[in-house]
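fwd from M.: "can u put these together and see what the complex looks like"

so here's what she sent:
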Amino acid sequence: MADPDRVKPEDRVEHKSLGSGSTPGSGEPAAGHSRPKEEGKARPGDAAAAGEEDEEGSSLHPSPAKKLKLEQDKKKEKRQKVDEDEIQKMQVLVSSFSEEQLNRYEMYRRSAFPKAAIKRLVQSITGSSVSQNVVIAMSGISKVFAGEIVEEALDVCEKWGDTPPLQPKHMREAVRRLKSREQIPNTKHKHILFH
Amino acid sequence: MAEEEEDPGFDEDLDDGGNGVDSGQGKRKRLFSKELRCMMYGFGDDQNPYTESVDILEDLVIEFVTEMTHKAMSIGRQGRVQVEDIVFLIRKDPRKFARVKDLLTMNEELKKARKAFDEANYGS
């Protein structure tokens, strides 16, 4: 199966930027990460963007096509520059890690849910087969979900003056907090407003 | 008022698996124990996380996958889970949304790269 961590060296540079994509607060468009590699393949992405912007361009300007192309080129350049900056910063950061930090970072990047188990689980719920992309998406967001809980639990642990390893009480408090922020999906309890 | 009564009920469901007495979710064999341990270490926990915490997290992840699957089945094409449905459900959560877009884009690129590689081999 395609394990992103085992791609060839020339892909690794681009791949490093994905790690920062998972950090909190970075709201950059996902397409920005793949820009460096997508030189020849930029057409599909640009065509999609052009399709969305077409409506406003044609109603405002005599030469919408040219104006659109200039805008897209500027945006692409900006995204590439931001991308390269980010890759460089990540490289500088990772090169200054201690051994323990390197270990932890490696675990952070490499750990993943087994695709077979996720596929089995989803198929047992739907009763029909699911595509590979669904499994990829589901394992990805499950990992982000697990990360959110662990991070919240670590916050709780620190706030209560305890030390890691995390205990069940930290996990439960983290779940309670995330639930109040509606970050944990819950369709069992429907609060009926007017009855 | 109703919500306060609900919360302990939900929490009991979540953590009962670790107590020795089997609840519904505790009876199932542990699917992700090894991977979850590595993941918890990667996210900041100790190198050896407590087994009870790993169990709680596994139950939460399975519940999350179950909820997402049910929701995805109820929208778009009924009874099926498609990627577009998952992306739609995630749209409000910036982290998960960005992650899914990243993963799917990377997958496409890898597929193209593999295909180009195979064709190059085939040609020569």
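replying to her w this: Chain A has seven helices and no strands.
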